[in-house]
Amino acid sequence: MQVHGAALALYGALRQARRAILALTASTMALPKKKLQGLVAATLTPMTETGEINFSVIGQYVDYLVNEQGVKNIFVNGSTGEGLSLSVAERRQLAEEWVTNGKNKLDHVIIHVGALSLKDSQELAQHAAEIGADGIAVMAPFFFKPANKDALIAFLKEVAAAAPKVPFYYYHIPPLTGVKIRAEELLDGIQDEIPTFQGLKFSDTDLLDFGQCVDQNSQRQFALLYGVDEQLLSALAMGATGAVGSTYNYLGKKNNQMLEAFERQDFSLALNYQFCIQRFMNYVIKMGLGVGQTKAIMTLVSGIPMGPPRLPLQEASREFALKAEAKLKSLESQCFP
After folding, report:
1. Alpha carbon distance 201, 248 (integer Å)
2. Does 201 participate in catalysis according to the annotation?
3. How far apart are CA 188 and CA 301, in angstroms?
4. Tens digit of pLDDT for each residue in 192-216?
5. In whole angstroms, what is the distance from residue 266 CA to residue 252 CA?
6. Using N-to-C axis directions, what is the helix angle for 318-335 and 291-302, rounded to 10°?
7. How far is CA 216 from the centre of its chain?
8. Contact (Cβ atoms closer than 8 angstroms) between residue 205 and residue 231
9. How far apart are CA 83 and CA 222, in angstroms?
10. Whole-angstrom Cα distance, residue 282 to residue 262?
11. What would be the CATH architecture of the domain defined by 31-266?
C-alpha cells in the first residue's frame, strides 16, 4: 500500500509539473497564431471496454493523423469526441493530453469548451488557456436555449473573457443544439463584443446561411470552417477556408487530394474525389452512422483501439464494421489508386 501511495503521489507531482510547464509556455503565446485553415480532424475520444478514457493512445493518434492522413489541426471534445458526455475533469485531462502530445507536431489544437453551465464553460476555457491551446470553441447551450442573438452573444462573451488571449471560435451546429439563430446574423458585429473572435465551425447544410457568412465578412479574414464532410466541395466553392469533421480522422488523405485538386482549379478531378467520398458516406449513413460506428471505422483504418462510445450511444455491430471495411477497400481501388 505504501508503494502504491508513493506511485500515486509521484504521478500527481508529475502532472502538476507538466501543468506548470504548459502554463509557462501559454503565457508567452501571442494572439493570434496563424490562420486556421485546411482540414481539422474532430477527434474521437478513445475509451476502454469499461468506458474509461484511454489516454495512453493519444500520442499514437497524433502521429497517425500527421503521418498517415496529412492532418495537422484538431478539434478536441466536440460532438465526435463525446465532449458533452465527459465530466469537466475528464475534458481537462483530455485537453492536456492532446496539447502535450501535439506539441511541435500539430499546427492547431482547438478545444471545445461549450457546456450547459456557464461556469463549467468558463473553467474549461481558462484551463485551455493555461495549457497553451491554440483556440477554444463554444456551441450554444441547448437545454435552456438562448432566445435570440443578444442572449447567445452574452453567453459566448462571458466564456471568451475567461481566456482573453486565446482565439475564439463559434461552433454552429443547430441540428444538435436546436438553436436556430443564423450564423450570418451572429457574425454581424461579433468582434465588437468578442475581440478574440477568429471564426466559425459551421455544421449545418444551409449553404445560403454559410454563403452569406463568407460574402458579408470577406474583409475580416475569419476562418470559416465547414462541418458537413460529405458536402465539403460545395462549401469550398462558396469560399470556405477549411473544414472540421470526423471523417478527416480516416479519410483525411483523400480529402486533402480533393483540396489540392480544387486549389489547382482542376474542378473535374475535385468533383470526382467528392463523389467517391460521398459513395462511402452514403453507404455508411444508410447503415446508421454515429459516433460508435465512426469509432469502429477508425479502429479498422488506423489500428488504434477507439473502444465503445459512452452511453447512451451504442457500439457498432460487427456486421457494420465488416461492411464498412469492404466499402473502404472498394473506394481505395476505384477512386484513389
Report:
1. 15
2. yes
3. 41
4. 999 999 999 999 999 999 999 999 9
5. 19
6. 60
7. 25
8. yes
9. 25
10. 22
11. Alpha-Beta Barrel (3.20)
| Residues 191, 220 contacting (CB under 8 angstroms) | yes
Residue with cell 469560399: 239
Known binding residue 179? Answer is no
Could you state, in order of their start, the residue ranges of all structural domains in the chain? 31-266
Is there a binding annotation on residue 244? yes
For residues 223 and 242, is the Cβ–Cβ distance under 8 A?
A: yes
Span 110-128, pLDDT tens digits:
999 999 999 999 999 999 9
The residue from 72, 201, 295, 327 that is catalytic is 201
254 is catalytic: no
Full 3-state SS string of the chain: CHHHHHHHHHHHHHHHHHHHHHHHHHHCCCCCCCCCCEEEEECCCCECCCCCECHHHHHHHHHHHHHHHCCCEEEECCCCCCHHHCCHHHHHHHHHHHHHHHCCCCCEEEEECCCCCHHHHHHHHHHHHHHCCCEEEEECCCCCCCCCHHHHHHHHHHHHHCCCCCCEEEEECHHHHCCCCCHHHHHCCHHHHCCCEEEEEECCCCHHHHHHHHHCCCCCCCEEEECCHHHHHHHHHCCCCEEEECHHHCCHHHHHHHHHHHHCCCHHHHHHHHHHHHHHHHHHHHHHCCHHHHHHHHHHHHCCCCCCCCCCCCCCCHHHHHHHHHHHHHHHHHHCC
Check if the beta carbon of residue 115 is closer than 8 Å to that of residue 141: yes
Q: What is the per-residue pLDDT across 134-178, written as a single tens digit (0 to 9) for each?
A: 999 999 999 999 999 999 999 999 999 999 999 999 999 999 999
How many other CB atoms are there within 10 angstroms of residue 194's CB atom?
18
**Which member of 171, 226, 248, 250 is catalytic?**
171
pTM of the complete model: 0.89
Rounded (5°) CA angle 186-191-196: 115
- The backbone torsions φ and ψ at residue 72, rounded to the nearest 5 degrees and listed phi first, read -120, 15
